[in-house]
Fold:
Amino acid sequence: MKHGAMKPWLTPLSLGLTIILSASAWADTHRPNIVFLFADDQRADTIGAHGNRHIETPRLDTLAESGFSFLRNYCAGSFSGAVCVASRSMLMTGRHWMNLPEGTKSRSWADLPLLPSVLEKEAGYETFIVGKWHNGEETLKAAFSNGKSVYMGGMVDHTDFVVQDYIDGELTPKRSAGGFSSEVFSDSAIEYIEAADTEKPFFLYVALTAPHDTRNPPVAYREKYYQNRPPLPVNFLPSHPFVNAPQVTGGRDEGLAPWPRTPEVISDQLSEYYGLITHMDEQIGRVLESIKNGPHADNTIIVYTADHGLAMGSHGLLGKQNVYEQSMRAPLIIQGPGIPADQSSKSFNYVHDLYATICDWAGVETPSKVDSLSLNPIMTGEKKSLRKELFLPFQDNQRAVSDGRWKLHVYPKINHELLFDLKADPHETNDLAKDPHYAKELKRMMKLMVKTREAYGDTDPLHVANPGLKEPAYDNNKRTLDVWQPKWIRDKYFDGRSHPNHGSN
Structure:
């Protein structure tokens, strides 16, 4: 993947589109179709084309080679442990979660100008949803016109779940999906693409549930990685060394494997996680082929991203309820007419920057009070970066800020700080906060933290008078067994228990 000067597709049509990519006059008469492929819980480092030699993602690799990759794409933290909800709230509203109206942070923001509804009302788009919607029925109805195989939930057994269709403003009764999640959602997306009107632009939102747990890929896909195992994360630990958030000892994500984490258990879960991604990649390939071989090929922009990342053993964690790189960073690839091929950027951006980006493509003015910044100036070469710093606030118990080189973590509930040199230590393994040689950097980054917090109106304290205990109390008897876990996972990771509590029945 090349970084620097851009290389557009060498055809007369795409050369012309590249030159006028940001011109609203062109968008008014040549609005592109947009296919938005949204993975669930996918780390940024799980795509072959982006440097992972241990995972098979040939379709995403091809997409990256023919498109533009944003290598510092982040979820902007979360107001709850359900980071999926927060990320999708920000994407649909274009607002940082701290700027959502009070009382609407979880699900009820239907009164705001939502991305699909803006495209429909202002640019005549047909809007269609397939897959996961984790933000409530009210907001679904405010956002989209129609949909198929909509999953109104969060966690899911990929082989046993229910879906609903969304027709003219109403959800149909629930029905069994009747297949594996990635296959069901891809089938519905392909059906829509093949029937889509060629005269009217469409926004197709395909929200997959992979690679979110339950980590139960088809047998062949997990066996593939059991036999050729990916290495453990460089920053693997048996347990997280301090209480970074309440979820570290009591959250469902962290309870999916016992403490201490063993290399064997994490290796198995990584193999299953990679299996989900490779299987998903295959299904995404079917969607991409349907676009390529259909009448929409020359006028469709494809967006591939995820709501956030996942720890998967990094720092002794499994979930996304933390501000480490592996949990907040997600892949982002954009491909289509006018999009430079085989190029990338390390500019800071957030997932919700896609709101303004898509508005640009549609020739629509981005609504007021939106925090989203268009990515198009990066792709056209007008700008090298959008932001000088990255701010990652998680509930009221974690804060992080980065200037690209240095990253500061603050844990207000325990009065704890971490400082990392990301250039020398991209995996955040060597804390420099207490090293006197880095006192100036610590002070500078703390000032940046204060400045950034002020810009977002963050008033939660960075330190408390009576801090809690730093040392976590890990208790395998309090691991919670989800109802979504299939029997083989219960047998493997929960000793066959069927009781919700992993302790005594």
Q: What stands out?
A: The first strand starts at residue 2 and ends at 3. DSSP finds 15 helices and 18 strands in the chain. The first helix runs from residue 12 to 19. The two ends are 53 Å apart (CA to CA).
